[in-house]
Specification:
It comes from Keguizhuia sedimenti. Its cofactor is Mg(2+). By secondary structure, this protein is of the alpha/beta class. It has a domain at 1-66: Alpha-Beta Plaits (2-Layer Sandwich), CATH 3.30.70. It is built from eleven helices and eleven strands. Strands 8-7-6-5-9-10-11 form a seven-stranded mixed sheet, with helices on both faces. Strands 2-3-1-4 form a four-stranded antiparallel sheet, with helices on one face. The longest helix has 15 residues, at 210-224.
Length: 281
C-alpha cells in the first residue's frame, strides 16, 4: 500500500518519522503539504499506530492502493451540511427561533447514530413551526459558507469529467442554491412545508434518510451506466454510512468517530480537496 500524509502545514521531519514507523521504502513529495510513503506492508496494527502518530502531528493519514487515479472515477457524491458547507442549516434556522441548543443536541445525536435520522429530523423540523420563511434566506446569506477545499475539488471534478451529486438530509432551499451556484449536476433533499410565509413544522413528501441517500447514489450510477466502484462518496454523519458503503472511495470529512472508523479516507485537518493527492499516485 501507499501511505499518504498531508496537513495544513506539513513538516517533512514528522513525515519521515511516520514513514520510518511504517517502514516505507520511499517518500515522495506530492506537493508542499502532501507526501506519499511507498511500498508499505499494511496491517490493522500499523494503521492504528500511523493514524495515532499522524493525528498527534496534525496530519491526515490515508492508506491507499498504488496507482489510483482521478480517471478511475465518474461520480462525486457529497453530503451537504458539515461536508460541502460548514454549517448544519437546520441548527442555524433554529437559531432564528432561539432554539439552536435544543435542535443542535438532536442533530449531534443523529449524526453520531444515537437517534434514527428520520425521527430526529421530524422532531427538529416540528420545533421550527411558525418561523418566518425569510429565515431560510438569512441563513443562506449570512451563515452558509463552503468548506475549505470545496471549490478546488469541484474544479478538479469538472476537469476530470466527473458528474456531481449533492444528496442531503437537509433542505431543497439550500441544495437548489448550491446546485445553481456551483454548477452541480444532481441534487436531492427534503422539502420544508411553507404556508402563508411560515414554516409549518412538517416535511413535504418522503424524508431523505440514510436509505434514500443510498438509493439516490445507486440511481445516479445507473443513469450514468457506471459501477458504484466508480463513485467517490463523502459525508460526515451516521446517516451517510449506507451511501458510502460500496463506493470506490468513501471519505469521512470532519466526521463523527463512527464514520471515520468505517470510511476509506478520513480528512480531519485538510480540506475537501484532500482527496486529490490520494489520486495522484
Amino acid at each position: 500500500m501507499n501511505l499518504v500524509l498531508q496537513g495544513l502545514a506539513t513538516d517533512r521531519t514528522q513525515v519521515e518519522r511516520i514513514a520510518a514507523l511504517a517502514k516505507a521504502k520511499r517518500v515522495v513529495a506530492i506537493s508542499e503539504r502532501a507526501f506519499r510513503c511507498e511500498r508499505v506492508e499494511f496491517s490493522p496494527e500499523l494503521k492504528s499506530l500511523a493514524e495515532t502518530a499522524a493525528f498527534e502531528a496534525g496530519l491526515d493519514c490515508t492508506f491507499i492502493e498504488p496507482g489510483r487515479r482521478l480517471a478511475d472515477f465518474k461520480l462525486l457524491a457529497m453530503d451537504m451540511d458539515s461536508t460541502l458547507i460548514t454549517i448544519e442549516c437546520i441548527d442555524e434556522i433554529a437559531d432564528m427561533q432561539g432554539l439552536k441548543p435544543e435542535v443542535a443536541k438532536i442533530t449531534e445525536a443523529a449524526m453520531r447514530g444515537e437517534i434514527e435520522f428520520r425521527e430526529s429530523l421530524t422532531r427538529r423540523v416540528a420545533l421550527l413551526k411558525g418561523l418566518d420563511a425569510n429565515a431560510l434566506q438569512r441563513v443562506y446569506d449570512e451563515r452558509l459558507q463552503l468548506s475549505p477545499g470545496a471549490e478546488a475539488l469541484l474544479a478538479a471534478a469538472r476537469e476530470s469529467g466527473w458528474k456531481t451529486l449533492l444528496v442531503s438530509g437537509g433542505f431543497t432551499f439550500f441544495t437548489d442554491r448550491m446546485k445553481s451556484r456551483l454548477g452541480l449536476d444532481y441534487t436531492h433533499s427534503n422539502v420544508l412545508e411553507i404556508a402563508d410565509g411560515k414554516l409549518t413544522g412538517r416535511i413535504v413528501g418522503n424524508i431523505v434518510d440514510a436509505d434514500e441517500k443510498k438509493r439516490t447514489v445507486e440511481r445516479c450510477c445507473a443513469e450514468l451506466n457506471i459501477s458504484s466502484r466508480q463513485a467517490i462518496v463523502m459525508g460526515d454523519g451516521a446517516n451517510d454510512l449506507k451511501m458510502m458503503h460500496g463506493a470506490g472511495l468513501s471519505v469521512a470529512f470532519r466526521a463523527k468517530p463512527v464514520v471515520r472508523a468505517q470510511a476509506d479516507v478520513a480528512l480531519n485537518f485538510v480540506g475537501l480537496d484532500g482527496i486529490l493527492p490520494l489520486l495522484a499516485a
